[in-house]
Amino acid sequence: VHLAESGGGLVQAGGSLRLSCTQSGRTLIGYEMAWFRQVPGKEREFLAAIRWSGGSSDYGDSVKGRFTISVSNTENTVYLQMNSLKPEDTAIYYCAQGIRRVNRWDYWGQGTQVTVFS
How far apart are CA 21 and CA 19, in angstroms? Predict the structure, then answer.
């Protein structure tokens, strides 16, 4: 399984970005996709998770109401739409594949940098 993120960049506070994470390799039945972020020197932070089948999603408190996770099964891609961005959203963003209920994430992408300036 290979995960590849894209869509990061530089954006002004209040703006939006959409991150993409494309999966290649074998399909893992029952696994979920998630987005995390990490700032150097700080712990990795859970942002959102969703099943490949779609349906209900789960969000971290810091991004509820601003970020939306979605999937495209035809494209094997998971998206993270980020709105109302703040400077504190600056981080490296990673997608992962695993099982949310046991907090086990077996596969990770290489990360994409998001920088929000005021």
Answer: 7
